[in-house]
Amino acid sequence: MKLLLAGGGTGGHLFPAVALAQLLLQQDKTAAVQFVGTERGLEQRLLPKLGLPLATVDMVGVVGRGWRGRLELIPKLLKSLFQANKILASFQPDVVVGVGGYASVPVLLAAKMRGVPYLIHEQNAIPGLSNRLLGRWAKAVCLSVANSDAGFNEAKTVLTGNPLRQGFEDITAEIAVPGKLLVFGGSQGARAINETVIEMLPLLKSWEPKPEILHQTGEADFHQVQQAYRQAGFDPQQVVPFIDDMLTAYAQASLVICRAGATTLAELTSCGRAAILIPLPQAAGDHQTANARSLEKVGAAKLIPQADLTADRLAAVVKELFEDREELKRMAEQGRQIGFHGAAGRILNECRRVLEMAPLEGD
């Protein structure tokens, strides 16, 4: 199979695509994969390290733009559509999988124009704009979350779960004692989380034992946060701009402070790690709050809206959980019960099914 994976920008879109590529290449030594993203996304930095090929299109997002910005987007879309068409002509994929994000739009449009079948993978509880628009021509729509099929043709949807990179499903359920406090705000960091954790450090300093922390800040806030740790008497080496080895980070963590993107939640539930979730309020359709509530409902996480986030409140929740190991263990177990393993294999099976089936009525 020649598989083209379109989308990216953030880890939430990119990591499921990486999981699909890694599993396909592991299953079939004759297979070939090609990623298409942008030069500004995480894919530009991460994929070369993984030895995975990347081609780029010059596309930008539409969310948050006024009518003037949307008009200015038309030439950009036409240019990126031309670029995507060249990439498809060169690689000649059997099937395309769109994983969301604005980079997927011109690629899936080009696939439609060239008669190349494509699937969509929707990670979130509330579907993104790109996937909603392009789902009408998809051969299948793979969902990570049950009941997230609004706006899609129900006959095309299949619940697959969210693919995880190799190794995540092998992380032991045993929680390290005392374990690290893992803090991250997604692949690009989260300023609200970074600033609140900085303010919380003096409150943690008096604890015995003082918690060990691994804090991913994103590039923009790295030096500021590292300096704040140093000034508060914490080891500044606990602060990094990006965590390359997330498998070890999760394995060593007993509690996680993070956003509520779909991929993050899939990782938490697969590993079985209790979390304090701080959804990104600007996320399209407020889908991160919907994601977070699904974990809070089953007792696998604590939800703190960003509007209510303070250093005192965050420190109180962290202290409560770190002092109650049984509660941490219970939350972790609840998370693992709703974890969805084998998602990458299900999506690849959908790709194979699409290649064998006749065109759906209305395509």
TrEMBL record:
- Give start-end of the signal peptide: none
Q: Name one GO cellular component term.
A: plasma membrane
Q: Where in the cell is it found?
A: Cell membrane
Task: Identify the Gene3D superfamilies for this entry.
Answer: Glycogen Phosphorylase B
Residue ranges of every copy of the Glycosyltransferase family 28 N-terminal domain listed in the record: 4-141
Q: Which CDD domains match?
A: GT28_MurG (cd03785)
Q: Which EC numbers characterise this protein's activity in its record? A: 2.4.1.227
The name this protein goes by in its record: UDP-N-acetylglucosamine--N-acetylmuramyl-(pentapeptide) pyrophosphoryl-undecaprenol N-acetylglucosamine transferase
Q: Which organism is it from?
A: Desulfuromusa kysingii
Q: Which gene encodes it?
A: murG
